[in-house]
Amino acid sequence: MTKQSLALAGFGISIGLILGAGVERADAQQPAPSNYVPPKTPWGDPDLQGIWPLNHLIATPLQRNEKYGDRQHLTEEELAAAKKSADARNKRFESGAIPQADSGTGVTDLTSLLSEPANGRFPALTENGKKMYAEMHGSYKPGQTVFDTPNDFDEWDRCITRGMPVSMEPRNYNNGIRIMQSPGYVLVLLEMAHEVRIIPTNGQPAPDSSIKEYLGESRGHWEGNTLVVVTTNFNGKGDLTNSGVPGSPPLTPESQQTKITERFTRIAADTIDYQMHVEDPDVIVSPFTVAYPMKLDNSYKMYEYACHEGNNAIRGYIETSRYEREHPKAKQQ
């Protein structure tokens, strides 16, 4: 059984609808003319509210193929080929040939979600980062075959959290992101892993550094029409990358020194320019930035993510691992 089918069958996840179609032109979604005025909330803040699913990014890899070098956009010919490939994939899914959910059919002209470093490649690990990686556990870690207890799995395996920055990156299903606002607060509701990021924008200071969270502690402020969110106080139990994100390095550790700075700028009625700058000097030799256009789709249906209910994946991995170690010949068959 594939990793994707285990995630669907074992975790009891509610699958979203197949939504979105066509090509999203990233180069046509650059900042609108300077006279664009975003809508405002009744209390005067720029209005970012709505559902902004990441379906249109499903065919855009996190990490850039080396053949593109520093080029951030596909040519017209490359874009047409990417659209053709996405259409073929969707037909295979509709025919039942692909045993997994697929929540998006859109294609952008971005060569990668990573805009920094310039080559779109994920930064190298520090020596400490390599040591931390060697100590990581989880079903997504390449080469791990021994599973005996829940401690052999990571936080996402155990339905705790997808973590940051991964929660703000696309997956092949459950891509919904809903933004809500009230005076002094912005809330980001994540369909995957049923979490809500509560972001004070009222000047409330960050908590003491001794308080650590899986998603960190976020504090926001407005710079003109841009919401700037700075997140610190991570507990170091999450991942900087996870193979659940298309085109991502399979697994990268995260330390308590992680700092994430996000910028949300509504540049059109249906578009937010989103940027996420990630620093973790304990793990990676340089920062990286993820950038993409968020597209408004209030018709998107966000369903319950019932990860714990009927979660047989952990038990399945442990039973299979123990059986294969007791019957090595069975593994070869």
Report on the structure:
This protein is α+β, with helices and mostly antiparallel strands and 333 residues long. The chain has one domain. It is built from five helices and 14 strands. The chain has helices at residues 3-11, 76-94, 127-134, 313-326, 328-332; strands at residues 23-24, 50-51, 107-108, 114-116, 177-182, 185-190, 195-200, 217-223, 226-232, 239-242, 251-253, 259-268, 271-279, 288-295. The strands form four sheets. The protein has a six-stranded antiparallel β-sheet, with no helix packed on it. The chain starts with a helix and ends with a helix. The model is unreliable at 1-32 (pLDDT under 50).
Classify the oligomer: single chain
Report the biggest beta sheet as strand number plus sense, adding barrel if it closes.
Answer: 6 strands, antiparallel
Percent of residues in helices comes to: 10-25%
Q: Report the average pLDDT across residues.
A: 86
Distance between the termini: 14 Å
Query: Which strand-content bin applies to the residues?
Result: 15-25%
| Strands ordered across the widest β-sheet | 4-14-13-12-9-8
Poorly predicted runs: 1-32
Q: What structural class results from the helix and strand content?
A: alpha+beta
**SS summary, helix count:** 5
Strand and helix order: HEEHEEHEEEEEEEEEEHH
Overall form: globular
Number of strands: 14
Indicate how many domains the architecture comprises: 1
